[in-house]
Write a structure and sequence with these properties.
4% strand, Rossmann fold, mainly alpha, 5 strands, transmembrane, Acyl_transf_3_dom
Length: 641
């Protein structure tokens, strides 16, 4: 019996285009397009819907499903481009960026086996931190592994549901129940302070988007949707489509969808997936105008190449930005260059790899590769193609082969990560003891002139930290720093230098962490204030990982209060386009608040590239000395003792 083929829905190319545009915009500017990462659930919902609809349609018409053909089509559709991006990236790493060689073999094979998301969880690969310990060009490939796992198990799942559960109503409620369990698990893990990477990358915690798409296919099969609908129903469909489309776009920009805040994990992503399901269903209905609206040449082009665009965007960004030291000075220009590179490479690989390989038969595979590597061919394009293919295959394979012999600690990026980790362990135990001490300590107001006089005498008779004098700090300031009480909240820049800061200011309570954004500081300040340990001098080192608004700054100042002084370290992050906006905003803060002092690390350090690691942002061992002494000097100059 011949099976009727599913109707091709051109509007889904437009939906894929929206998804990949959102992801790219998020990677370009995660603060302006704070919900752009939600493009991934769009891909998941679409996959769940289309795959399940195709399978159920087959069972309805023939009573069976051709699993062999399904797996064959998935392999031809997904693996050629995946292999290409892995080997092309490996070649580039071998030739130009060998600091990324460590564990490359594990990354490649984890991707080929569709378990890369588990590898990222086990290896602490953060999606939100592109400094210090996470410059991987492969970070975005976690989604491919979840898709791959879905394609592997889903034919069996549908077979069991059709044979055992049978009734579509029950299948629908089963899929809804499992999807809700997945979303509930995500929320519970977040609320119980589980590792954010475990939650973000987990197949179980991300299944709900796929499951909801699959559930939609059960009750909204493409072939059973009637194009002849009453005018009122058509208007209703179009209105539902409009509302869901607007909500989809709003959530791309909504601050509540910040992927490092609670709402995203406690119902936010689930809500978004439900909205995508509704919009997907409206596009699928032939009685709605939304399939036509989402069908145009631009969306068709982007949507048809969305797989390649998604695969290549992150490697291109990482490789390009690693070679550009002044991205912050020309943000628009460099983003345009990156976008052009992404689109050009995606188009080339689509024409040479993705499209021909998706249509190839096993019998023609040998013929295809024969043409690619045919050095005798008269066609110069084929000769160039053959040379490039051989080049990538050889050097990519060499990079993968030698990577097990490369130790991560051989490279300074990993040295920074190790420093941060070591400092974090010391910081945790030191802070716990210091907090207990501060709770018991009674505040005694001493005469400033008396403190300075005593410090001057000690500086002569028993000087401390003399090795720091050569970094531009006086012995008197070093002595005064022993007494100053500071509460410091920062990101990975401060975390990398926390030991030096603690050495200079032993009474400083330093709370610094990788990936930290400004919004985290609100809760930390409130917590320290409630414990009664928030010092009169508050040091803030945030802004490296993204810009913030004047409202955010105002909230920090309200939380701290007018009686405390706020010392805010401005940012030296020339490879990010938010360097200038952050520093300009801090200048506004200094004008607005009498107790707001800028520690101008940017001006002090911008002409000293040797103070930084290769990311041009994190101070190296020498830079850390200058960073900590400069901060200490400024605090001593303005602080309350």
């Amino acid at each position: 019996m011949n099976m009727r083929r599913n109707r091709f829905i051109t509007g889904y190319s437009g939906l894929r285009a929206l998804a990949v545009i959102g992801v790219i915009l998020y990677h370009f500017d995660p603060n302006s397009f704070i919900g752009g990462y939600l493009g991934v659930p769009i891909f998941f919902v679409l996959s769940g819907y289309l795959v399940t609809d195709h399978m159920l349609n087959s069972y309805d018409q023939t009573g069976t499903y051709n699993n062999r053909r399904f797996y064959l089509n998935r392999i031809k559709r997904l693996y050629p481009q995946l292999i290409a991006v892995l080997w092309i990236s490996a070649t580039y790493i071998f030739l130009f960026q060998r600091n990324l060689l460590a564990k490359l073999n594990q990354i490649v094979f984890a991707n080929l086996l569709n378990v890369f998301n588990f590898w990222q969880i086990n290896n602490g690969q953060s999606y939100f931190e592109r400094f210090a310990n996470n410059e991987s060009p492969f970070t975005n490939l976690w989604t491919m592994s979840i898709e791959g796992q879905f394609y592997i198990v889903w034919p069996l799942v549908i077979f069991l549901l059709v044979k055992l559960v049978k009734k579509k109503k029950r299948i629908f409620f089963f899929l809804i129940a499992v999807s809700l369990l997945s979303a509930i698990e995500m929320a519970i893990l977040y609320l119980t302070k589980a590792d954010i990477n475990r939650i973000y990358y987990g197949t179980d915690t991300r299944f709900f988007s796929l499951g909801l798409g699959a559930a939609l296919a059960v009750i909204w099969p493409v072939e059973e949707l009637n194009p002849e609908v009453p005018k009122q129903d058509r208007i209703l469909l179009d209105m539902i489509g409009l509302v869901s489309f607007i909500l989809l776009l709003v959530m791309y920009f909504a601050k509540a969808m910040n992927p490092q805040q609670a709402f995203a994990y406690c119902g936010g992503m689930l809500l978004f997936s439900l909205i995508v399901c509704i919009f997907t269903g409206v596009i699928a209905h032939p009685g709605s105008h939304w399939n036509q609206i989402m069908t145009n040449k631009l969306f068709d082009w982007i949507g048809s190449r969305s797989y390649g665009i998604y695969l290549y965007q992150f490697p291109i960004m990482i490789f390009f930005e690693s070679k550009i030291n002044n991205l912050g000075d020309h943000p628009i220009l460099y983003r345009v260059i990156e976008l052009v590179l992404i689109l050009v490479i995606s188009e080339v690989t689509y024409c040479l790899i993705e499209r021909p390989m998706s249509k190839i038969t096993w019998k023609k595979t040998k013929q295809y590769f024969g043409h690619v590597f045919d050095m005798q061919a008269k066609n110069y394009v084929k000769k160039i193609q053959a040379v490039l293919a051989a080049f990538v295959l050889i050097f990519g394979s060499v990079a993968i082969a030698i990577s097990p012999h490369v130790k991560a600690e051989d490279f300074n990026k990993s040295q920074l990560a190790q420093r941060i980790n070591r400092n974090a362990k010391k910081q945790k135990s030191y802070n716990a003891k210091l907090i207990e001490k501060l709770k018991k300590q009674k505040k005694q107001k001493e005469n400033d002139s008396k403190i300075i006089k005593e410090a001057a005498e000690k500086a002569k008779s028993n000087p401390v930290n003399q090795s720091y004098v050569k970094y531009g700090i006086s012995q008197l300031d070093l002595e005064l720093a022993q007494k100053v009480q500071v509460t410091a909240i920062g990101d990975s820049v401060m975390a990398g230098s926390s030991n030096d800061l603690k050495q200079l200011m032993p009474k400083a309570l330093i709370d610094a962490a990788v990936s930290r954004q400004l919004n985290v500081a609100f809760g930390l300040l409130d917590n320290y204030k409630r414990q009664g340990v928030l010092a009169d001098n508050v040091l803030i080192g945030l802004g490296t990982n993204g810009p913030f608004s004047i409202d955010d700054l105002n909230r920090i100042m309200q939380e701290v209060g007018p009686k405390r002084k706020v010392f805010w370290i401005n940012v030296h992050v020339p490879t990010r386009d938010w360097q200038r906006p952050v520093n300009d905003l801090l200048k506004q803060g200094a004008k607005r608040y009498h107790n707001f002092i800028i520690i101008d690390w940017y001006s002090y350090s911008k002409d000293h590239p040797k103070w930084f690691y290769d990311d041009h942002t994190h101070p190296n061992i020498t830079g850390s000395k200058y960073y900590s002494t400069f901060i200490t000097k400024t605090i001593i100059k303005h602080s309350k003792f």
